[in-house]
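Deliverable D5.2: sample structural annotation.
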Amino acid sequence: MSTIQLADNHCHLLSKYYKDPEAKIYDLQESDLKYIVSLGTDFLTNQELLILKQKISNGFFKIGLGLHPEEVINLGTLATYELERIIHQIIQNIDIIDYIGEIGIDFKYTNAEQYKDLQILVFQEFCKLAKQLQKPMSIHARGSFQEIIDIIRSVGFDKNTFNGFLHCFTGSFEHGQALIENNFKLGIGGIITYKSGADLRDTVKKLVDYYSGSTLNDLFGLETDSPFLSPEPYRNKTNSPENVKIIAEYLTQFLSKS
């Protein structure tokens, strides 16, 4: 069985979660991780990451700028204004950013149904921008996999180009297949280690079997979503990018036994 690259493809190394994100990144550079991707969720966190990137301008520390769907819901009708600000922010800094994200659609939040059309509109605009700028995306999805896949198909991404990650994938086999066929990788994080992750484990195994000619790196990317979603046995504690090692070990052991 192939091994999977030790990298954190989705985390949030921000001052509201960590006392000194810059020092943490320098410490992580001494670890076994190949790189980390830290994602913004609104204009201000995007700006914080841009400042960090100017200080740590190397291939280890990668960043993405976006507008999280929870922020879209919280902003309501003001979200279109924030969207325009962030699009401008992305275009201005296109040479130093690696991803557009965190972006997406979430139908599980309170008031999500009220702002369903707004979430879809914002996500569509980010997809169009990503295609135009040829930047991969980091996508958040809860209860919205089909809507996200439909938008990806309608925008028409190049299937020969890496188009991004579906962060913390928990969709069905069919959802995973549709995303992989559009050259997206599926983010595998702490959820796969949870007792409640049985359906995800089953889906991952089916995808590995179906794409038997592909490596794990072709299909998946490790992530922590730090500081959230710590893997077992550290669930409910503050997560950290080093924990991708735990997720990688769990994934390979699970697949070798199944």
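Annotation notes: The radius of gyration is 17 Å. The first strand starts at residue 8 and ends at 11.
The annotation will be released with the project's public dataset once the embargo ends.
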